[in-house]
From TrEMBL, chain A:
Organism the protein comes from: Paenibacillus prosopidis
Name this protein carries in UniProt: Alpha-D-ribose 1-methylphosphonate 5-triphosphate synthase subunit PhnG
InterPro entries: Phosphonate_metab_PhnG
GO terms classed as biological process: organic phosphonate metabolic process; organic phosphonate transport
NCBIfam families: PhnG_redo
Automatic annotation (TrEMBL), chain B:
Ranges where the record places region Disordered: 364-393
Superkingdom as given in the UniProt entry: Bacteria
Sequence ranges of Basic and acidic residues compositional bias: 366-381
Bias-annotated ranges (Polar residues): 384-393
Protein name from the UniProt record: Alpha-D-ribose 1-methylphosphonate 5-triphosphate synthase subunit PhnI
Record organism: Paenibacillus prosopidis
GO biological process, one term: organic phosphonate metabolic process
Length: 145, 393
């Protein structure tokens, strides 16, 4: 799994999973906080579909945190004021970076969480699709009558 | 015009702050909960985030509570707070084509691949006050949301849609990216560099995307009413969630790792304005306008697309004047400048007062001579009148 995939499952998924993975590492390893959770900004670049070139759309508030496990860095970041989750993400990332044996068992859980997120999105999408519309021109409308 | 710093009034200012607080809370309970503002006034929150230039729904809701619902003040609060934070990262380019769409319409093409979905909109509702909302309880809200979610089925297929602009491009109905520009150029950043006129397209889009909705709507409307040349149809309007990624800061050299940080709700609009003949190919192609902004703010997205296109045209209308448009649409600048008139301008006023008094003194000195001259004039004017009266008698 790529980092982008792992972080998406952890951020969009149930917070209980993230907390549990973090606690699992904390129980067996010493986690040093190098940079405590702090708020910062991410400048977002977006694609202009006319020129097909990017422009800066505005900044997003994020919370980020850096830790180390066995002298290996772990980094966590997510949108909003989310100190606890930023720390938990950093610990999980540190575990992956340090290639800790616990992480081997995580992939299945992360894939399952990813599936749950996908289902949630599919349900939201299906509600939106209920408002799918086919407009008739007045000519067509009158012809049907 | 001269200005001077003033001091004093500390106690009065503290009392004024106390009064503002008092008028916010008097005769009302419970205190507005931030989450309720964020969720139940979401369109206002979206507007404030866009104009404040920072995507942070919770903070936008807090700003609205603090500002008693004034969007200009709330955007100012958000923009000011934003300036206290470090910018540690830049995102990878957000691709609105990757949006999880919840609304997608086209007023130009009836049959767009994937179809049109109305999504959450008030476009087709009667504008009548819904008095039943006065009785809406927490239980009602929870029950409706649960029933609505539970009834949702699991949709198949892709949750994203190809963009109408890309389809037009594939069919040769819209210009492809200019040669040599297929690689991403680093955009201009108006928050870090001073924007000079004429400016780049990227700077223009950045200024428009954080412009004030009302000001942009007014200027776009002026263009459509005849003070300009842009009166488009909507090629595509989409609202949805776009994922945002940043590069992994501890990535090994050459690594392409990136981190997901969350989703942004965005409104994207592509308008079709007119067409022109491509000089190279001889093909006739559509000219599109582009709008993209934070949250669900369709009025702003459409206005942005109109103004963006309008600024690509030549003419004398206000909406075609880059400096006029870009320097007057910023909420913080415009509301700040108008509001500053309420602050002390004593020196400016004092100099005007001095001049008036000087004129009054000069006039007073000339008064005796004027009075004598006026009396003579009146006497001369009245003489023939008397004669007339006598003759009548």
């Amino acid at each position: 799994m790529k980092k982008s995939q792992i972080t998406r499952a952890l951020i969009e998924g149930d917070g209980i999973l993230l907390r549990r993975l973090c606690e699992q590492i904390e129980e067996s390893y010493e986690v040093s906080i190098l940079k405590a959770p702090e708020k910062s900004l991410v400048m977002t670049k977006a694609n202009d579909s006319v020129s097909q070139q990017p422009f800066y759309m505005g900044e997003v508030l994020v919370t980020e945190c850096t830790i180390s496990i066995n002298s290996v860095y772990g980094f966590g970041v997510l949108m909003g004021e989310e100190a606890e989750r930023a720390y938990q993400l950093a610990v999980v990332d540190g575990a992956f970076q340090a290639k800790l044996p616990e992480t081997e068992a995580w992939y299945t859980e992360l894939l399952m969480e990813e599936q749950k997120v996908d289902e949630k999105h599919r349900r939201e999408y299906s509600r939106a699709m209920k408002s799918k519309v086919n407009f008739d021109t007045m000519e067509e409308y009158n012809a049907k009558r | 015009m001269a200005y001077v710093a003033v001091t004093g009034g500390q106690e009065a200012i503290e009392e004024a702050n106390g009064l503002a607080h008092f008028y916010r809370v008097k005769d009302t309970t419970p205190s507005l909960d931030i989450e309720s503002i964020e969720k139940q006034l979401r369109l206002l929150v979206d507007r404030v985030m866009g104009e404040g230039g920072m995507y942070a729904p919770e903070y936008a809701a807090l700003a609205l509570k603090q500002a008693e619902g004034d969007p200009a003040e709330a955007a100012f609060l958000l923009r000011a707070y934003r300036s206290t934070l470090p910018r540690n990262h830049y995102s990878l380019t957000v691709q609105p084509v990757d949006m999880r769409v919840i609304r997608r319409i086209s007023s130009s093409f009836r049959d767009i691949p994937g179809g049109q979905m109305l999504g959450p909109t008030y476009d087709y509702t009667h504008r009548m006050l819904n008095f039943s909302l006065r009785q809406e309880s927490n239980e009602d809200m929870i029950a409706f949301a649960k029933e609505y979610t539970d009834a949702a089925e699991l949709a198949d297929g892709s949750l994203t849609f190809k963009k109408v602009a890309d389809l037009l491009r594939e069919q040769g109905l819209m210009a492809k990216a200019a040669k040599g520009k297929s690689e991403e150029q680093e955009p201009f950043d108006i928050t870090r560099q001073k924007m000079t006129i004429p400016t780049t397209r990227a700077a223009r889009l950045q200024a428009l995307t954080r412009g004030e909705t009302g000001a942009m709507t007014a200027l776009a409307y002026s263009s459509m009413r005849g003070y300009g040349v842009v009166h488009p149809t909507i090629g595509e309007l989409r609202v949805g969630y776009a994922p945002v990624y940043i590069p992994y800061p501890y990535s090994s050299e050459g690594g392409d790792d990136c981190l997901y940080i969350g989703e942004l709700m965005l409104t994207e609009v592509e308008t079709i304005n007119s067409f022109k003949q491509d000089a190279e190919s001889g093909n006739v192609q559509f000219l599109l306008g582009y709008g993209l902004c934070f949250g669900q703010n369709e009025l702003k997205g459409i206005s942005m697309a109109i103004l963006e296109r309008s600024l690509e045209t030549e003419g004398t209308a206000p909406a075609q004047d880059e400096e006029f448009v870009l320097t007057h649409i910023d909420s913080v600048e415009s509301s700040g400048f108008v509001s500053h008139l309420k602050l002390p301008h004593y020196i400016t006023f004092q100099s005007s007062l001095d001049q008036i008094r000087k004129v009054q003194v000069q006039k007073a000195q000339l008064k005796p001579e004027e009075d004598e001259r006026d009396a003579n004039n009146r006497a001369e004017a009245e003489q023939p009148q008397e004669n007339i009266q006598h003759s009548r008698v």
